[in-house]
Structures are given as structure tokens and as C-alpha cells.
Design brief:
Blueprint: E1 3-11, E2 17-25, E3 28-33, E4 43-46, E5 51-54, E6 56-61, H1 74-83, E7 86-91, H2 102-115, E8 119-125, H3 138-144, E9 148-150, H4 159-171, E10 176-178, E11 191-192, H5 195-200, E12 204-205, H6 208-224, E13 228-230, H7 236-247, E14 252-256, H8 258-262, H9 284-296, E15 301-302, H10 311-314, H11 331-340, H12 347-362, E16 378-388, E17 407-417, E18 420-424
Parallel strand pairs: 1-4, 6-7, 7-8, 8-9, 9-10, 10-13, 11-12, 13-14, 14-15
Antiparallel strand pairs: 1-2, 2-3, 5-16, 16-17, 17-18
Helix pairs in contact: 2-3, 4-6, 6-7, 7-9
């Protein structure tokens, strides 16, 4: 069915909001411009001045399916993505079974396509069960449709394994995304080594666990020519290393999670596992460096690291609860409210970091702008609406967010994938 979206605001090529109508037909955008006239058989949606953009892209999500469906499923995770205004997501391979062979990867891709209400693309595992020293058949997995490779959740401890993985990923021109974590420097830590760990008497995780492994990997990336992607960067030292690597021509990109942009370990006031994530919330100086790195382009993009867990798991103490928080349903709203409305960045820059650069970095087919001929993957946000983040509003099975209770602007009104409406806010 054809649909005409009237009275929307879209970003023009200069990054300015302009009034526009958009006609969708056969899953694609057929016309863009002011005052488009509806014709018979076309449904009409009045956007009432809301912001219409190509659907957001998240290169780092955990949908837990198969293996951990008490936490999330592909269906609930992709519904959460649609609720957040995302139309394309890249799912990490820490599943059971791990997609570490061409056969298992192909099965996972079929499951994603069957169960997902948005475009769910799949990482292949670097090595068996995310921990083996022998690198998986990356060429065969690439041929089956792996969008990139990662052992997310486990830092690659062996330099030889990482070197061979980089050679394999470079040979098929696919990104290799690294979860940076040197196990010899973790020391059973559960939060950042710093203010909060001392105050709460909890074991801390030094930032060196991330930055030292990053330094190793950047040297290997320079030698192999791989596209090396830094997952959930969290320390000021890591930002400096990425900046220097880019200056030297190393093919490196980096992502930062919303929680690392908006929170520091100073915000942890008690033993509350909703503030436990990996990497942990770092110092205020680290947080400020991350914001600066995102602004100047050292950090290429925002990625949520959406990591749902059950309520009972997160009801435990920080010492025993699992790492991870949800984020895909609240990321645009939080960042629009606290970075754009506050004047730290423009809306155009935020969309660049949540849409354009992820597409460019990972070579995705998703649309970067609203124009005739593009697939109609779209999201509509009410930038003037003020809401409070509420457990009951989450589509995700996981309710483990430290942002519950925060007031935000930018509610998602509707999301379309290939012209089909996959989310619509209901009246309250």
C-alpha cells in the first residue's frame, strides 16, 4: 500500500531542517517535497512537524537468540530496535551455538531474517566459541553473509590469533570488531578502578585492560591493512590512541555507547547492578574525552551495546550480577536531549554518528538520506515531546537500564522498514 507522510521535517544536504512530504510506494520513496497531493488509494499520515529521518543504524546489539531467550529474542530485540527508531542492526555472535562456522552462521542469518522485524545483520565469530586460538574460516563465513567478525564479550588474548584474524578479515574486505579486554589486567573487577570502586569496596577494572590491548591491535592493524573497529571505547587513553592511528593512516573506526557519553563512575552511588557494564563506566575525565572524540570525528559512531538480562540477574549485587545494560530504545532520545538540546552538537551531527557513519564504515546498503529511489527505512521522532523513561514502555525483555526515570525529548512516533510500518506509538 502507498503512504504519504505529510508535514514532516527532514534534514537537507546542508544539515538544516526543512518542511517536506514523503511518498512511499512499493517499499521505496517515490517522491519528496513540499505540498505533495494525495491520490486515491494512498493512505495519509500527518507528521505534524515531527522529524523524519532514514532509520537509525546500530552496529552492536545482543539479541541472545538462540541460547539465552529468557533475556531476549530476535523478535523482542528487533521490536525494541523499531521502538528506538532503528531499522538496521548488527547482531553480535555470543550466542549458543556461536556462529563460528559457515553452516552455523547461515542458520543464524536465516533465523534473523525470519524473526526480525527490522534488518538484523550478523557478525561471524573470529574463533570457535569466541575463545579458541585457531581462527575460523572467515572467507567461508563472509561468503555466507557475515557482515563483519568479532569475538565480542571476550578480548582476543593471543596476539597471533588476532594477527591471523586480521589477515583473514582483510582478505575478504570485512571489518574486524574488537572487544578490548586483557584478562591479565581484569583482576576480577566489576566496575572501574577509581572513585566508585574505592567508595564501594568493589574490585576495580583498570583502563589499561582496554588501552594496552588497543595499542597492540593498532600495530597489527597497520601491518595487515584490515579495517579494525573498536567496540565500546571507554577511556581517554584509547581515544588518544585512535586519534594517533588515524593520523598515521591506519584503517580504524571506533564506536561509543550512550551510557559512556552520559554517565561516569561518579554516578554510581550504591551497589546497583543497573550500573554494571563492560567496559565499566569510567571517570568524568574519560567521559569528557569520549564526548570530545565523538565531536571531532575520532570516534566515528554511536552504538548501543544493547545487552538485556533478566530482572533476577540484575537484582543481584554488582559483585555477582552479569555485565550489560539495555539501550536501543532510549539512545536517540537520551543523546538528543543531553547533547543536541544542550547545544553540545547539532542534530545533523547526531544523525551522522547514528546513521551515516555506521553505514559508511560497514559498507551497508541502508539509506543515508531521504531521496527518491531509496528504500523506505524511516523513523519519525517528535522532538518537542517530553516523556519519562519507564520500565513498562520497553519492548525488550530486558528492563536493565540505569536511565529509567530520566526525562527525555524525541519520542519515536513510527518506524518503517521497506515501507512497512513496524512500530507506531499508541496514545496513552
Amino acid at each position: 500500500m502507498a503512504e504519504l507522510i505529510q508535514n514532516a521535517q527532514i534534514l537537507d544536504t546542508a544539515g538544516q531542517l526543512v518542511d517536506s512530504d514523503v511518498l512511499i510506494e512499493d517499499g521505496h520513496i517515490q517522491a519528496v517535497g513540499p505540498h505533495l497531493q494525495p491520490v486515491e488509494g494512498v493512505s495519509v499520515t500527518d507528521a505534524h512537524g515531527a522529524f523524519l529521518t532514514p532509520g537509525l543504524v546500530d552496529v552492536h546489539v545482543h539479541f541472545r537468540d538462540p541460547g539465552f531467550t529468557d533475556k531476549e529474542t530476535i523478535r523482542t530485540g528487533s521490536q525494541a530496535a523499531a521502538h528506538g527508531g532503528f531499522t538496521t542492526v548488527l547482531a553480535m555472535p555470543n550466542l549458543n551455538p556461536v556462529p563460528d562456522t559457515p553452516e552455523k552462521l547461515a542458520a543464524q542469518i536465516r533465523l534473523n531474517q525470519t524473526e526480525g522485524v527490522v534488518n538484523v545483520l550478523q557478525y561471524g565469530a573470529i574463533s570457535a566459541n569466541l575463545i579458541d586460538k585457531n581462527v575460523s574460516d572467515l572467507a567461508a563465513m563472509s561468503a555466507e553473509g557475515a557482515v563483519a567478525f568479532s569475538n565480542d564479550g571476550k578480548g582476543v588474548q593471543d596476539a597471533g590469533t588476532m594477527y591471523q584474524a586480521m589477515l583473514g578479515a582483510a582478505a575478504v574486505d570485512k571489518p574486524l570488531a574488537a572487544h578490548l579486554e586483557d584478562n591479565s589486567l581484569i583482576n576480577h573487577g566489576v566496575i572501574n578502578e577509581g572513585v566508585a570502586s574505592k567508595r564501594l569496596g568493589l574490585a576495580g577494572i583498570t583502563g589499561l585492560a582496554e588501552s594496552s590491548q588497543l595499542a597492540r591491535d593498532l600495530v597489527l592493524a597497520q601491518a595487515t591493512g584490515v579495517h579494525y573497529h573498536v567496540a565500546h571505547i571507554s577511556t581517554k587513553e584509547s581515544v588518544t590512541l585512535v586519534r594517533l592511528a588515524k593520523e598515521q593512516g591506519i584503517k580504524v573506526t571506533a564506536e561509543v555507547s550512550p551510557h559512556h557519553l552520559l554517565l561516569s563512575d561518579e554516578d554510581i552511588v550504591g551497589d546497583n547492578a543497573l550500573f554494571k557494564m563492560n567496559p565499566p563506566l569510567r571517570s568524568e575525565a574519560d567521559r569528557e574525552a569520549l564526548v570530545a572524540g565523538l565531536l571531532d570525528g575520532t570516534i566515528d559512531m554511536v552504538a548501543t551495546d544493547h545487552a538485556p538480562h533478566t530482572a533476577s540477574e540484575k537484582a543481584q549485587s554488582m559483585q555477582t550480577a552479569p555485565f550489560g545494560i539495555t539501550g536501543i530504545e532510549t539512545s536517540f532520545q537520551l543523546l538528543y536531549t543531553h547533547l543536541v538540546k544542550s547545544g553540545v552538537m547539532t542534530l545533523a551531527t547526531l544523525i551522522d554518528r547514528m546513521l551515516v557513519r555506521p553505514i559508511q564504515a560497514f559498507g551497508l546498503a541502508a539509506p543515508k538520506q531521504i531521496q527518491v529511489g531509496q528504500v523506505a527505512d524511516l523513523a519519525l521522532f517528535d522532538l518537542t515531546d517530553t516523556t519519562t523513561i519507564n520500565f513498562d514502555d520497553f519492548a525488550s525483555k530486558g528492563k536493565n537500564s540505569p536511565f529509567v526515570g530520566w526525562q527525555v525529548n524525541g519520542s519515536t512516533l513510527a518506524t518503517w522498514v521497506a515501507g512497512k510500518r513496524v512500530y507506531e506509538r499508541t496514545a496513552k
